[in-house]
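hey
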C-alpha cells in the first residue's frame, strides 16, 4: 500500500475522544451523511409526485396534439391519412373544442366544450379512474343531447345528473346580436358529472359527441380544432413529434409536456430550490472538514516536520491530507447514499408512510428513485469534499522543516 495512504488511514483510524478535532471530524461525517441521505430522499419524493401528476394528466391528455399555427380549424381527414404512415401511433382522433356558455335557470358559466366521436371518447383512460356521478355517456338519444360536465362546473351551476341545461356558442351569440333577436341556445341533458381531481378539467371541461359539437360550434366541413395522438411508447414523444412536424410544416405539434409546461416548470423550480437548500447541509459539513484539517496542520506541525526530515517530500505531505479529506468525504457520501436508497426503497416496497385516502388520491407517499439524480448528488458531495482538502494540503506541504519542528 502507498505510504501516504497508510499514514492517512492511520490518522483516520486513531481517534482520541478527549480531543476537540476528533469531535469536529465526527460531526462533519454525520453532517455529510444526513445531507446526502436527505437530498436523495426528498428529490425521490418530488420525482414520485411528478410521476403521479404526469400519469394523472396523461389519462386525459394525449401524448401529442396537432393544432393549427394560424386560424382555428384544420382538415382532420388529411391529417389522419398521413399519420397512418407512422407505425408508433396507436390511435389518433379529431377533437372539436370551443368556448360555450352553459346556463341553468339564472346561473351561467363559460366552459370549454370538447366534442369527440363516441369510439374515441371510450378510449380516454382518465374516465376509468375518475369518479362518475350519473352515467359516463355522451351518446345522443334522438334529438336529446347528452352532456358530461366537470364536478366544479356542476357545483357552480347547482346541477345534477338528468338536469336540463342550455348551451350557447359564440356564433349563436354573434348571430343574435346581429339580427337583434333572442336565441335561447340548445337544450342538453346532464348524463353524468365527472371528478378527475384536476382543477382545469373539473372547473372548465364538458364533453359531448362529435356530431352534436359540429352543430353547436359550426366548424367548416371536415374540420376539427385539434388532432390528438396516442403512442405505443409515451417516452418517444419528442422523436415522433419531429417526424410529424416534417409531415405538417404548416401545423404545430405539441407534446403532453407542452400542454402543461407552466406546471412542470414550477415542479422543476421546486426541485432546484430543495436541492440548493439541502445542499447547504453538505456544504456546512464540508466546511467543518476543512476547518478540522486546517487545525491538524497546526497541531501536527512537528510530526509534519519530522516526516520531512526523514525524506518526505511536500508532494507526499500534500497527498496525505488529500487522502484524509477525500476518504472522509467518500465514506460519508457512500453511507449517506446507502441510507437514502434504503429509506426510498423501503417506502416503495413497504409503504411505511401512509396517506389518508379521504384527503389524497394515493394511499402512500409516492417515491421514485432516478439514478441520474443519485449520481449527481454523489458526485457533488465527493467533489466538494475533495475541494475542501486543497487548502489544508497546500498549507501543510508549504511548511518549512525548521519552523515545523521548532518547539516553543
Amino acid at each position: 500500500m502507498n505510504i501516504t495512504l497508510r499514514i492517512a488511514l492511520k490518522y483516520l483510524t486513531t481517534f482520541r475522544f478527549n480531543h476537540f478535532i476528533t469531535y469536529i471530524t465526527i460531526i462533519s461525517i454525520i453532517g455529510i451523511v444526513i445531507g446526502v441521505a436527505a437530498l436523495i430522499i426528498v428529490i425521490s419524493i418530488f420525482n414520485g409526485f411528478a410521476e403521479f401528476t404526469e400519469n394523472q394528466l396523461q389519462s386525459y391528455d394525449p401524448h401529442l396534439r396537432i393544432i393549427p399555427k394560424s386560424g382555428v380549424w384544420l382538415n382532420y381527414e388529411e391529417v389522419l391519412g398521413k399519420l397512418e404512415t407512422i407505425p408508433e401511433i396507436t390511435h389518433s382522433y379529431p377533437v372539436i373544442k370551443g368556448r360555450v356558455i352553459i346556463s341553468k335557470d339564472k346561473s351561467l358559466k363559460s366552459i370549454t366544450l370538447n366534442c369527440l366521436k363516441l369510439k374515441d371518447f371510450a378510449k380516454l383512460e382518465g374516465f376509468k379512474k375518475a369518479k362518475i356521478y350519473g352515467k359516463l355517456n355522451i351518446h345522443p338519444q334522438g334529438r336529446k343531447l347528452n352532456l358530461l360536465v366537470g364536478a366544479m362546473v356542476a357545483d357552480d351551476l347547482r346541477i345534477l345528473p338528468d338536469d336540463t341545461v342550455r348551451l350557447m356558442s359564440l356564433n349563436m351569440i354573434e348571430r343574435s346580436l346581429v339580427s337583434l333577436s333572442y336565441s335561447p341556445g340548445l337544450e342538453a341533458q346532464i348524463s353524468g358529472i365527472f371528478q378527475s381531481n384536476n382543477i382545469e378539467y373539473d372547473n372548465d371541461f364538458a364533453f359531448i359527441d362529435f356530431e352534436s359539437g359540429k352543430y353547436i360550434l359550426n366548424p367548416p366541413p371536415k374540420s376539427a380544432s385539434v388532432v390528438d395522438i396516442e403512442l405505443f411508447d409515451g417516452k418517444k414523444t419528442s422523436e415522433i413529434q419531429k417526424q410529424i412536424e416534417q409531415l405538417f410544416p404548416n401545423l404545430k405539434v405539441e407534446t403532453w409536456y407542452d400542454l402543461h409546461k407552466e406546471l412542470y416548470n414550477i415542479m422543476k423550480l421546486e426541485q432546484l430550490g430543495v436541492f440548493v437548500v439541502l445542499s447547504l447541509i453538505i456544504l456546512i459539513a464540508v466546511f467543518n472538514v476543512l476547518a478540522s484539517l486546517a487545525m491538524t496542520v497546526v497541531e501536527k506541525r512537528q510530526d509534519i516536520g519530522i516526516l520531512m526530515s526523514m525524506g518526505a517530500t511536500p508532494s507526499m505531505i500534500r497527498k496525505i491530507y488529500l487522502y484524509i479529506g477525500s476518504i472522509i468525504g467518500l465514506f460519508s457520501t457512500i453511507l449517506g447514499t446507502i441510507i437514502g436508497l434504503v429509506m426510498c426503497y423501503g417506502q416503495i416496497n413497504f409503504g411505511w408512510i401512509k396517506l389518508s385516502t379521504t384527503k389524497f388520491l394515493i394511499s402512500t407517499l409516492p417515491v421514485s428513485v432516478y439514478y441520474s439524480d443519485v449520481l449527481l448528488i454523489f458526485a457533488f458531495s465527493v467533489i466538494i469534499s475533495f475541494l475542501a482538502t486543497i487548502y489544508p494540503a497546500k498549507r501543510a506541504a508549504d511548511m518549512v522543516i525548521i519552523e515545523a519542528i521548532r518547539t516553543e
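The chain is about 55% helix and 20% strand. The two ends are 36 Å apart (CA to CA).
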